[in-house]
Amino acid sequence: MTIKDVCEKFGITADTLRYYEKVGAIPKVARSSGGIREYDDEALNWVQNAVCLRKAGVSVEAIAEYVRLFNMGDETLKARLDLLSNEREELGKQLAELTEAVELLDWKISRYRKAVETGVLTWDKEEGE
Amino acid sequence: MTIKDVCEKFGITADTLRYYEKVGAIPKVARSSGGIREYDDEALNWVQNAVCLRKAGVSVEAIAEYVRLFNMGDETLKARLDLLSNEREELGKQLAELTEAVELLDWKISRYRKAVETGVLTWDKEEGE
DNA sequence: TATTGACTTGGAGCTAACTCCATGTAGTAC
DNA sequence: GTACTACATGGAGTTAGCTCCAAGTCAATA
User: Fold this and answer.
1) Which residues of A touch B (CB under 8 A)?
2) Interval B64-85 mean pLDDT
3) Is the CB of A59 under 7 A from strand D?
């Protein structure tokens, strides 16, 4: 697979993909004789991993650290587990904050829907709701 | 309430709070005769709003736009509803991506726990799991 | 063989959201 | 009155994560 295919598959730019490789968020990608990147299934998995974690807000640095440990072999199993556990914990917090914001917005939106109907915006809880 | 109190209450810095005010993510805060910020309950609500939304990843610009519309009065009810609905939709997407990443991490973590026990890291689904 | 287009590289540039700093002032403690 | 502290301001600096650019290479096509 070429870099263009991978970009389309994951909805990111070629620059981003090269950037991830440069900073180690994905391992070095194999090149053709002409120096062109060739992504195989394993490479795609690494891209998938990076993209998924980035979308959730995990830092490029943390992802790169995981890749680095991975490349060091079995001695780093425990270190990788710790890293993943820490990131998981962060995502748990993030999930809670996101949920809180969603609740805030949903409540405001319900008020605004009523306000657009009635012309009056009120923040008081009403009877029967 | 002084700026310091508000910082402690919400776990942010005074610089951040002044920054939010400067860019309009919260309305102008009243000052004492000496020019010191005095946060009343309404001001606190605005801070709460900004902090909550920021933690969920809503941009300072979007928050400021909401404040701007709010200050323009009832003509902007519909515009505010639209803005909030858009942000709500974004948060919904973010929630889905976050959930996906959490699932990825949880699965990896389960593999790594096993690997740390057995010394062997495997990505295959096992029988009876 | 000349042109075209997709790729390569290193490095500069950009944006959002803070974060820090220099300088100044109001209010209190001695 | 002087020192100290907590605040004020405008503006510069920082960081993460891209994003863009110039210059060059390679393969395929006219």
Assistant:
1) 49, 52-53, 55-58, 74, 77-78, 80-81, 84-85, 87-88, 91-92, 94-95, 97-102, 104-106, 108-109, 112-113, 115-116, 119, 121
2) 97
3) yes
CATH at B72: 1.10.1660.10
CB-based contacts of B3-6 (< 8 A; 24+ apart in sequence):
B3/B36, B3/B37, B3/B39, B5/B39, B6/B39, B6/B44, B6/B47
Q: Nucleotides of chain D within 7 Å of a protein C-beta?
A: 6-11, 16-21, 25-27
How many angstroms away from the CA of A101 is the closest CA of chain B? 6
Say if CB B78 and CB A123 are below 8 A apart.
no
Answer whether residue B128 is part of any domain.
no
What does the alpha-carbon distance between residue A112 and residue A92 come to, in Å, rounded to a whole number?
30
- A52, B121: Cβ pair inside 8 Å? no
Q: What is the pLDDT of residue B127?
A: 62
Q: Which two tokens stand for residue A73?
A: 């072999």
For the record, the structure tokens of A10 come out as 């994951």
pLDDT band at residue A62 under the 50/70/90 scheme: very high
Kindly list the residues from chain A whose CB atom is less than 8 angstroms away from the CB atom of residue B99: 95
Tens of pLDDT, residue by residue over B86-115, are 999 999 999 999 999 999 999 999 999 999
Say if A126 falls within a structural domain: no
**Whether the model pTM is above 0.90:** yes
- Domain of B92? 3-118
**Total domains present in chain B:** 1
Residue A75: inside a domain: yes
Q: Is residue B34 part of a domain?
A: yes
